[in-house]
Write a structure and sequence with these properties.
Helix content is 74%, strand content 0%. It is mainly alpha-helical. The chain has a single domain (4-185), classed as Vanadium-containing Chloroperoxidase, domain 1 (Up-down Bundle). The longest helix has 32 residues, at 4-35. The protein is globular and about 50 Å long.
């Protein structure tokens, strides 16, 4: 499952973001935000809410797979999303990149932005659900892309943070799918 072309593209995008694309996209988003009605921001805030993202891309599919008695796929989904999100949080403490405009999180503090944990978790779920249920691939990836874009639209992450989140998701998904990681749990 490990796709070296995708990895190379995501690394290149993240690096390009660090050096120029981040501020380019941030300026474009600021211009768009000025002309769009406030309801658009509310729409993106909804799609960026952690509980909503967790429920839509992880909890509901996990419960569905679990009740279908597809314990292997449910386990892969659980571990893949956990590893992707966890590695994103570890990356945040390693890179310590300030969010755009020093944005404060809901906890009232400025925390690290790179890589985006929302994006990592969303795309890990999308990659895994696309494997388990290919007909869901397009809507699931569209939803994950909407979550990623909402993080940039709300000025919570730079472009490179989102590219880094997708990279983390792909690496952790490949690790879980291609390895015998679940044999530890009896699968």
């Amino acid at each position: 499952m490990l796709n070296w072309w995708l990895i190379a593209i995501l690394v290149a995008l993240a690096l390009a973001g660090f050096f120029s694309l981040d501020h380019f996209f941030l300026q474009k988003i600021r211009r768009v935000r000025k002309i769009l009605p406030p309801g658009v921001e509310k729409f993106f805030r909804f799609f960026s809410l952690t509980p909503f993202v967790f429920a839509a891309l992880f909890f509901v599919p996990f419960i569905f797979l679990f009740f279908q008695k597809d314990f292997y796929s449910a386990g892969i989904l659980f571990i893949g999303c956990l590893l992707a999100t966890g590695l994103a949080f570890i990356g945040k403490y390693f890179f310590k990149r300030v969010r755009p405009f020093g944005h404060q999180t809901y906890l009232g503090k400025v925390d690290s932005a790179f890589p985006s944990a929302h994006t990592a978790g969303s795309f890990a779920a999308a990659f895994l659900l696309a494997i388990f249920s290919p007909p869901l691939a397009v809507p699931v990836f569209a939803f994950a892309a909407l979550v990623a874009f909402s993080r940039m639209y709300l000025e919570l992450h730079f472009f490179s943070d989102v590219a880094g989140g997708i990279l983390v998701a792909h690496l952790m998904t490949a690790l879980v799918v291609d390895s015998d990681l679940l044999t530890i749990f009896g699968f």
